[in-house]
User: Fold these one by one.
Assistant:
Number 1:
Amino acid sequence: MLVPLQAGAETACDPAQLELRGGTGPDRPPLARFHVEIADDSAERAKGLMFREAMASGAGMLFVYDRPQPAAFWMKNTLIPLDMVFADARGVVTHVHANAVPGDESPIPGGDAVQYVLEINGGLAARLGIVPGAELRHPAIAGAAWACPAR
């Protein structure tokens, strides 16, 4: 289940969760918290969410690259529609691709300086208002614009 966050709720980052906030101004409220699986090596990134028939609404997969780079995804062997949230080295969302079509092998470009990609259920990014400029928070995002609080 998708867990909305309360404004001002600061918790230490959990490696199994990713928090996302958006809006404008210094007190931007968090939008949501997702339970995430991490894909941080070549084999995990290649498999991604392939062959899954369903995913909980509050779940996702965070793809982590060693450095910013051009990134493009496809939906080969992926059975559910996905939103792809592309972010830079600081975890700032730079592009959102909505409702990627299951099985489509067309490349979905995310940009030239992508270091993180969050995949969530299709349509959820629009429903939550996830747009470029939103920020991701997770322990894997070193130097994040929205850093994890000190423990």
Number 2:
Amino acid sequence: MTHKTSDQDIKDATLTWLKSIIIEYSICPFAKRELNRGSIRFSVNHDTEIEQCLLSLILECDRLDKEPDIETTLLIYADAFAEFDDYLDFLEIAESLLIEQGYEGTYQLASFHPDYCFQGSDPDDAANYTNRSPYPMLHLLREASLEQAVAGHPDPENIPQRNIELTRKLGLSKMQALLAACFPADQ
């Protein structure tokens, strides 16, 4: 008998990742504020067909259009895109769809995947963990809010380099352990 992971378990693992990696190590210096405000939406999607996954993205854009109290959405694809290359193909289509649907300049996508690997990077480079998450997901950001947050940060240009240096200093084993700890022990 296989254990089917519930939506709540998926959200819990993602929240643990957000708190214990992204916020704890300030990978995204803007995440803590939104978590504390309760303005992050966690949306679990179980579709496996690309068309349905794209539809869920557009529906989330529509939700953000209508619900200004939601600052950002983590759209978690629980059952799709297990292979990182498939995820990258999907991401490219998703970004094109946002433009096609008139959302360019309104929403921006950040990408996260359990096997995230930056182009030209070794898969075992700890720096990949800046974008490794428990599940494949798209982070849908309000571009105006992002611009405002970046403008208020003392050194936004150096955030990526700081994250690379930090994750490499922490090391691969530590980053692997942090990500693995996001899941309940019985998974």
